[in-house]
């Protein structure tokens, strides 16, 4: 488990090294994560600002969301379980909510974490993660959702304003099914938000997910 102090991310370390060498840090290649336990939504508070990171639990490595591609292989395809929000296709691409199922399929086990936030900082010891927007191949998409059992947590369907935001307790570490109804390149924008001493604090990041056919 990470300590609660602010850590310099892998990209930050690389950028600092490249800057010292007089090189362009924009040339630093993005990292692709395709399997293992990865907290996709991982919030930290540095005493004055909220931050969103991607935390690879397998290697205890922290990344800026913009520097990571989350890969969902064809092996993630499963039979559509029939929930109404998952469309009418016979199959979906699923990142499952149990580590055993994810490991068996060789896919990501995605987490939503508030475990690295300190109790007593945020009002009601609660933060929220909001799905701000979702696109697939550059166009707004209805093809992304997060659910647990028969309960939707998030749904990119713009026909409803529900299932866009969910509260999480400080210290919590959660897992749910991440479902994609079509192959393509998704851009998922999430915002973490909480109240500190009566002031609303937030951070927003966009995550790239490539779903292969």
Question: Briefly, what is this?
Answer:
The chain is mainly beta. The protein contains 2 helices and 17 strands.
Describe this structure in words.
This protein is mainly beta and 213 residues long. 8% of the residues lie in helices and 48% in strands. It contains 2 helices and 17 strands. The strands form 3 sheets. Strands 1, 5, 9, 10, 13, 16 and 17 form a 7-stranded mixed β-sheet that branches. A 5-stranded mixed β-sheet has the order 4-3-2-8-14. Strand 11 and strand 12 form a beta hairpin. 33% of the residues are buried. The model is unreliable at 1-29 (pLDDT under 50).
Secondary-structure map with pairings?
Elements: H1 10-20, E1 31-33, E2 36-45, E3 50-56, E4 61-63, E5 68-72, E6 77-79, E7 91-95, H2 99-105, E8 108-113, E9 126-136, E10 139-140, E11 144-148, E12 151-155, E13 165-169, E14 173-175, E15 177-180, E16 184-196, E17 199-211
**Whole-number average pLDDT?**
89
Tell me the strand percentage band: over 45%
Helix content class: under 10%
Contiguous runs where pLDDT drops below 50 for at least 5 residues: 1-29
- Which class do the helix and strand fractions yield? mainly beta
Q: How does the overall form come out from the CA principal axes?
A: globular
Number of strands: 17
- How many helices? The count is 2
Kindly provide the radius of gyration, computed on alpha-carbon positions and rounded to a whole number of angstroms: 17 Å
- How far apart, in Å, are the first and last alpha carbons? 35 Å
Q: Could you state the order of secondary-structure elements as H and E?
A: HEEEEEEEHEEEEEEEEEE
Major beta sheet summary: 7 strands, mixed
């Amino acid at each position: 488990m990470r300590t609660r102090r602010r850590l310099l991310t892998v990209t930050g370390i690389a950028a600092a090294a490249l800057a010292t060498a007089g090189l362009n840090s924009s040339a630093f290649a993005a990292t692709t994560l395709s399997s293992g336990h990865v907290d996709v939504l991982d919030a930290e508070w540095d005493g004055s600002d909220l931050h969103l990171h991607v935390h690879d639990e397998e290697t205890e490595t922290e990344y800026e969301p913009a520097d990571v591609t989350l890969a969902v292989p064809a092996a993630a395809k499963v039979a559509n379980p029939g929930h109404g929000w998952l469309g009418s296709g016979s199959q979906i691409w699923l990142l499952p909510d149990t580590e055993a199922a994810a490991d068996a399929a060789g896919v990501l086990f995605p987490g939503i974490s508030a475990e690295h936030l300190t109790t007593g900082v945020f009002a009601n010891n609660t933060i929220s993660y909001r799905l701000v927007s979702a696109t697939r191949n550059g166009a707004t998409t209805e093809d992304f959702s997060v659910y647990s059992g028969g309960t939707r947590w998030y749904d990119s369907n713009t026909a409803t304003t529900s299932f866009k935001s969910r509260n999480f307790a400080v210290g919590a570490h959660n897992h749910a099914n991440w479902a994609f109804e079509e192959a393509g390149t998704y851009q998922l924008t999430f915002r973490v938000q909480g109240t500190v001493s009566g002031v609303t604090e937030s951070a927003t990041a966009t995550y790239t997910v490539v779903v292969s056919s």
